[in-house]
Write a structure and sequence with these properties.
The complex is a heterodimer of chains A (484) and B (717). Chain A has 484 residues and is an alpha/beta fold. Chain A is 34% helix and 18% strand. In chain A, helix 11 runs parallel beside helix 12. Classes of the chains: A alpha/beta (484), B alpha/beta (717).
Amino acid sequence: MKKQLKESGLSINRRQFFSRVSTGIGSMALGSLLIPDLFSKTDGGTGGFPAGMPHFAPKAKRVIYMFQSGAPSQLESFDYKPLLRQMMGEDLPESIRRGQRLTGMTANQEHFPLVGSFYDFKQYGQARAWVSDLFPHTAKIADEICIIRSLYTEAINHDPAITFFQTGAQQGNRPSMGAWMSYGLGNENQNLPAFCVLVSKGKGNGQGVYSKLWSNGFLDSVHQGVQFMPGSDPVLYLGNPGGTDKQSRRQLLDNLEILNQIQYEKVGDPEIIAKIRQYEMAYRMQTSVPEVTDLSREPDHVIKLYGPDCLVPGTYAANCLLARKLAENGVRFIQLYHQGWDQHGNLPDEMAGQAKDVDQASAALVQDLKQRGLLEDTLVIWGGEFGRTNYCQGKLQKDKYGRDHHPRAFSAWLTGGGVKSGMVYGETDDFGYNIVKDPVHVHDFHATLLHLLGLDHEKLTYKHLGRRYRLTDVHGKVVKDLLA
Amino acid sequence: MRLLKETTVNLIIGLNVFLAFLLLFGPGIDLPLPLKVVGRMHPLLLHFPIVLLLTAFVFEAFKKHFPLDRADMGKIIQTLLLAGCLSAAVTAVLGLFLSSEEGYSGDTLQWHKWTGTAVSFLSPLLWWGYTLRKGRNILYAGMVVVLGLLLVAGHFGASLTHGENYVLAPMGSTGKTTVDLSEAHVYSDLVQPILKEKCFSCHNPDKAKGELVMTDTSSFSAGGKSGKPFAAATFGESLLVERLLLDIDHEHRMPPKGKPQLSQTEIALVKAWINGGGDFTVRLADAPDPEIKPLASALYGSSAENTYDFGPANAARIEQLNTSYRLVAPVAFNTPALDVSFFNRNSFELKSLEEIKEIATQVVQLNLSGMPVGDAEMAVVASFPNLRRLNLNYTGVTDQGLAAATQLPALRTLMITGTEVTTAGLTSLLNASKLSQVYAWNTLLGPQEADSLMQIHPGLRIDSGFMADDTTTLQLNNPRLNPEHIFFRQPFALTVDHPVAGTDLLYTTDGSEPDSLQSPRFRESITISDNTVVKVKAVKEGWIQSPVVEKSYQRTTYLPDTFSLAHPPHPLHKGRGAATLFDLAEGSTDILYASDGKWLGYNGQEFIAELGFKQPVVLKEILLSTLLSARLESFPPYEVEIWGHGPGNPPERMARLKPEMPAKDSKVRRNIISCPIAGHKPVSTIKIIARPVEKLPAWHPNPGKPAWLFIDEILLN
């Protein structure tokens, strides 16, 4: 790599050199104004860190993100609001709503009848955390996890909100979190992609997830997420085409490398070297992927831990088990999506089904990582893209109601790798509508995540179209109170 | 103009006399309230003398370079000087008013007061000298003196407002200081740095807001105007904690709104210290409050975790040691410590471990998880003197190999999940090492043994993980029937399997419920040649049996040679057109919007299909497979008509029926509507008309709306 850098440095011509020198002096002065600690003793400033290495000692080496796509209701999971039951059917007071925007789906409703959780809550663990009866297994690991009840986001509809969570921007075309981490920390295992994606689908009302969510954006294409599919061909286009055996594949790659090498010596484009490496990695993945996706050798008590569905490829439970195996094998960022959490109607029924899909396996993954000593350096996250309203969408019945999108307050939980365990952070008002204590913005959440991985979110940058980009753009504060 | 100038001069003289008077008798005078308000204008006005005087000096120094004649230039400079003198005098007087408020004292204030006064006294002299137009050199010297005084006064003023060393602070180290927690004193090493950062700027001997000085312990504990910061040993009465926890908008909240706040952890640490008696000399190791230790390590980090007393390895060598199956990487930027991991079992050999012995000093983490590691490899592992964390999960390590780990003095964390290590092996290792965390799930070590080992070794945690026992009974999930489609034309072999190994699959084909006494166990396959209802459930010891899976296989005999639809289906549910009706694939009843591409949907329009046969056929029964779901507003057709004609037969109605309508609480299901054919005549063309319900019934949530009709297959027998 160093050699290539040197060579590409030599190819800078005289004109480019002078134009850089002249801007250099000015930008140094400007830089010292914009980046206050540019000349201070502690840091080398932006770009002072090499990519592919933590900036400081990390607490976590990898992330498993169990994304609950569609936005699970916080009011039936972790944010206990008894007042909503008492005031069932009464209108949401204007003093609470304060003219906040609503989606087009409920903005024209004449009334906003408050609706309490159909499910009961109990307190668990040393933090006496409230967890609803829908999540009995999660309740059991209450002492391991840190529940945040005060997340908030800027988007009110699914696609921009998921995109915001994944990439730090609502419009797309930015690198996904996993891509940033692959860029910032590099590969651990050279035989698997640093960023893997697993998608499953519940029976509840769902929203699509698209490959743009695990895009590398403007980063190099090596950082793109690789989706693992259920079935005989987990990674698409990885297997040899019909009629090709391993031997001839090897030969083909060797010859291709010679050609690529010639081309590289001619034009000196480092992307060519990247391409050679990609081919080599794909070749090694032909053996490593079947090994890691084989779930048949898991002992019976592991199956009982995750539930028998973990042996049915494509289910959430199977993806959780696979996520643990990928984590064991040194994958940096494992992104799960479980669809079906968009309960605009029939919430009690649908949410029960969704919770049954994910509860046992999510808790099992935490326990399984812990008993192997992997939870120490693996950060596990569970949550959706926003919350749901405290008022009912459509007709209100006691056991049949819906909730619309609510970006102003929602819950998620984290555990492992440097996160304080057995803790509840943040608070909403008695109506569960506004945050009253310790708000955590999506940018803050990203900053904290990167911090746990040993990366300074203000220093992990990539220059594109003339400016430096970050996952947190120009925002974000590390939430120190969450750190163990 | 002249009058204005004279008034100004007189005003300046007057103010300076007043200033001298205040300096002589000031301490004895109690200021009236309005003057206090005026005094607070000092921080605003002080900018005027600085800028005006400075501008005058700069104009004087560069006056030759201005495109103005000498006289004009002189007038401008004079005016600037005069205005500077006036503002200097006013600022000085107001400054003295302000200093009489509580909270200002000390050396910094004295310096600021006297340099400021000097500026006020000297600058009129400078102006006077300037108007005389004599003694240029003396004048310039005077300017330099006033300029110096101005800067010194400004600097001390800034120190008073923003705290000592405000200007230069960002140049100093901003990094978090790590403290050796084993030696640390609670107050001086942990609490005081927080107070220093967040409180000292307003509570120091120079600026003691609320008469509280926190910089030395005796005046800190003596307290200020409102009382002592904390009383004897009761946290509930601590004024300090109370102020820290007040609402941010509260008048008495400390630090006040707009100033840097203490974090929750910092508040908790201060609280815990006061809780434990607020002792200024107690060491962390002896601190009475148990909460204080985790808080301290959260704030100041454990120094042992991040510092290393060895130098870095050769970077080029590290790069060479990285292969596709071995990762050698620094733990973080700028640390010599290395983290080594091995991947891919088949490419691991003893040599790959021996090769990293040359960087043995730097390796602090070693991950051998899943590698074929035996006793020979463990002998190599023993040669890493600084190894702190060793992952041996799912390796071949036994007690014998583990004994080598006793030679690792720095080892703190050990993972031996899934190995054959026994209690005896671990016990002898624990006796010879300083391990603090062991992960021993799925080994020969049980939870009781782990508990007793933890009692013998305080400070040690053993995680023995989750082992299913007899009380963990779960329900088996559904068995899977292959093929998945329920419609067929040719007899086929049905197979059933289950994801969990070792289950028994009980089945019936006569519609009765399978049970473990009478029903046969599924062997290889059964042949289905006619309409059959298959019911299967899975059973296994230690598990709750699975739900019964029911599939109703339906035979269709004829495939029409041509088929077409008179009206296209609704664009949201168009499937693959008419072909969808004869592809043997059934639509799912388990989805929300009938959107799996296997249903054809009609809303407000008749379904009319025309089928053609090259060879005339005799039909006995035609079946329409429809979806019944009140939620999707999907109902059976209100009326079905079938027409047909064949060679020699004119078109004739072969069937007409009104299917039964669902009741209010009917479940979502497939509703197969059977239409018996009258006449049994050979036909070559048939036309199937199905009319959707025009108005949903009154019990439906949307009464009066037109119902949907979903069809996925037409069966011809």
